[in-house]
Amino acid sequence: MTTPLPTHVDTAIVGAGFAGLCAAIKLDEAGRSDFVVLERNTEVGGTWEANSYPGCACDVPSHLYSFSFAPNPDWHHAFSRQPQIFDYLKSVATRYRLYDRIHFSTAMTGADWDDSAGLWVVSTSRGGFTANHLILGAGGLSDPSLPAIAGIETFAGTTFHSATWDHEHSLTGERVAVIGTGASAIQFVPHVQQQAAQLTVFQRTAPWVLPRRDRAYGRFERRLNRLVPGLQRAVRARMYALRELWLVGFAVRPSILRYAEKIALRHLSKQVPDPVLRAKLTPKFRLGCKRVLLSNDYYPALSQPNAEVVTDRIVEIRRHAIVTESDAGDRVEHPVDTIIFGTGFQVTDPPSAHVVRGSSGATLAEQWQASGMAAHRGTTIAGFPNLYMLVGPNTGLGHNSIVLMIEAQVGYLIDLMRKAGPDTVLAPTQTAQDAYNGEVQRKLAGTVWNTGGCQSWYLDANGRNTTLWPTFTFEFMRELRRADLAEYDVRPRVTLPETISA
Question: What domains are defined for the chain?
């Protein structure tokens, strides 16, 4: 039986992935138990529920890619596969008794700030309600991005994105095209290559690929983690420190990245003996400018007789083919039966930004149109009172675990709510937000993400890096440890009038 939506709650949380679950757990622990979680899917997990493509796994070590307050001693690999991460998030939701608080198959379709009452009027696929506070926890890797290619609608075969994998469709004996060579593609390409009669990978930019230092955790090691929790904490601390060292190359002294580049090129040379293919797969930008990928089987898959890498640009899709054009103007038609898009997500233009309206009546997307995404401390936004965005602008990472950032943000917003007190409305001042983001952009200016010679999903349409945090994660955690009300406009909330309707 579906639980009816409330008419009013203190806090509405959108999304039941890492971010939404963390917010729910910590709000409950802080005594703010009047909340609901809206989840458009039928289960918790977010990214790890949606992405179930073959080979799906995390490229952050397992002991880091979990909540600090809910360690998992039973990880089976150093880098966990999607099914176990999914199971972990379900176990966390069960352990903290969240299932009764989550409204599944309930998509937020709109959220409008009522300035006169100081409330959010939330619309969903199942009706509406009002809330004092709204937490957006959908994350940046939740909505697939599809390329705009002429004729794509005329294709007579099967198409799907890696995040909406068609498990009912058999690739056996087919001519399969993969568009995109990002983090998802390098994981599913080896599996597709083993099934397809012909695999054609359309590559715009060759990524940097490092060896994946993975290993299985045996029964003894897992049992030891359960018996000696301090051991797992020590392993996590060591992994954290090693990951933070990557930041030195990315943001402090990019010249030292040449050593990692040598490892990557040696990895490429060892796994791809064909010099022509190796040349296609050799990156032409600094390591780290785009997301660094980890794989031991991507290059070998592309070296198989039934695989081909095409670097000419795609100009058209026909009913049964993809057409490319070389720099010389020569066109080639590549017959295909199925197209798989490994083209990433809408990171710099999140769909939620188009349906959330602030005190001026403008949506987040409209406010961000001129200057790009911006938030105060990556979490709160001027002109959008009592709104908190987890994994918001400039909170993404190129070197460590996003779970660390989520926990810091949740702690910050709860401290902010506590200090402001009940029945209040707060939003960062434009001055505070501009000063914060100016400093973030200043720190990003000399990093490899901005100067590495590539175009990446870290950058928005204006070439501004609105995605990544520019320095060490411990600095972010330190900055968000305590909320400062001097950076905010705070006013009393008007009592809810009976005439307000969701």
Answer: 8-143+347-492 (3.50.50.60), 152-213+252-341 (3.50.50.60)
